[in-house]
């Protein structure tokens, strides 16, 4: 099944709908969806290395736009939407302490959330709840998400064929590692 999913993703990455799919996944991941956009970004850059910068740009812009949607959830809909999302991720009980950190470290928290396995959606919602300055949020988001996605695109652009061969040989291991990193991000949030 893993190989079929990988092959399907590689086929999707080569279609004319790939950028739109990447934009949707990137947008949703920043506010509610648990799957990172890298699952499409990586195969898309491998399938179309000449468009690596466009792909990374679309991913970045959609992710930041989704981040502002998460910010809006936190700002306007926290009790109705944001609080249940934080409950799903098991973070609501420590949220008050997290809010206090935002008063002092907001820009750095957003920047760290944009490049680490810490779920970015929690950061975006928290930014809205704590009413972090939208300019600070936007700049930190663009810089961190852009750094992450453009770095991935640059590495794949430079070493695409060997990376693709490596991924195809070790697909199961890499998927397991991805889930471990995602789980690690959730655990890191619980420990904050």
Question: Would you give an account of this structure?
Answer:
The chain has 192 residues and is mainly alpha-helical. It has one domain. The protein is 82% helix and 0% strand. It has nine helices and no strands. The N and C termini lie far apart (36 Å). 34% of the residues are buried. The mean pLDDT is 81.
The gist of it:
With 192 residues, the chain is mainly α.
Key terms:
mainly alpha, globular
Estimate the strand proportion: under 5%
Global geometry: globular
Helix count, DSSP H or I runs of 4 or more residues: 9
Order of helices and strands: HHHHHHHHH
Low-confidence stretches: none
Averaging pLDDT over every residue, what do you get?
81
For the CA atoms, what is the radius of gyration?
17 Å
**Total domain units:** 1
> Whole-Å distance between the termini?
36 Å
Percentage of helical residues? over 70%
Per DSSP E runs of 2 or more residues, the count of β-strands stands at 0
Alpha-beta classification: mainly alpha
- What characterizes the major β-sheet? none
Compile the SSE list and pairings.
Blueprint: H1 2-13, H2 18-29, H3 38-47, H4 52-76, H5 78-88, H6 95-115, H7 120-129, H8 134-169, H9 171-191
Helix pairs in contact: 1-3, 2-4, 3-4, 3-8, 4-5, 4-7, 4-8, 5-7, 6-7, 6-8
